[in-house]
Structures are given as C-alpha cells and as structure tokens.
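Predict the 3D structure for this chain.
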Amino acid sequence: MGVNRFVVTASDRAKVLSDVVVFNQSEIEYELKVHIDADKFNQLALLEISEGKSGKTIDINRDVTIHKHHPWIDINKRALDLDPGQHIYKLEFLDIKIDETCEMFFAYIIQQDNPEKPYIYMDEARKYHDS
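Done. Predicted structure below.
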C-alpha cells in the first residue's frame, strides 16, 4: 500500500474552482483526505457535508473521520461521487468561537483510463496518420 494521493484542500467558495484536483478513477483506494486550514480547524465543529449537484449529504457518523489534533477530515470513498466529471462538495461547520455557521468547499475531477470521447490530440494524430 502506497501513499494516499486522494487529497484535496478545503477553501472558500471563491477559491474552490482554482483548487480543483484531478484523480484517475482506478487510483482511488480508501478515502479522500480533506485538509482544513490549521488556524481555523480547532474552532470548527463539522455539521454536514453535501454534494453540490445533488445536495446528497454524507453520513458524518459512518463515513467521516475527524482528526482531533490534525487539520484533516477523512471521507470514506463509498460516500463520494466517483463518476467521471467534476464534483464540488460543501462542508458546513459551526464556528464555536462566534457561534455561527460557516462553509468551506472542495472539488475534484474524476477521469477514467478509457474515456468515451478521445482526446483532441488523438484526433490530430488520426488526421496525420490518415493523410
């Protein structure tokens, strides 16, 4: 077993799309590791995780591990959408210092080894080969 490379960073809504990570479907092992800003982590209590398109929530008691002394949240892969494409999730927290809810987001793209549509460079190679 190697190093888990299924890792993302939670950020605010404005930055989520600039923090997108691409994963190959065949390389995903057990869980997604979500890094939370260490300066904020100790003042946050996780309330809910939901998927952006469907709004489906993840069972945080069954599928989520929160590391008490490290700014990481692990989500079991069975709770995630691993279909090819882009996926955005919302983390809802209670900020215990100010007693208000706050949100963070993470996003990833899943790709397959055998995509249905060939890549553009493959089309170009065919054109070159056929001429």
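The domain at 7-130 is CATH 2.60.40.10 (Immunoglobulin-like).
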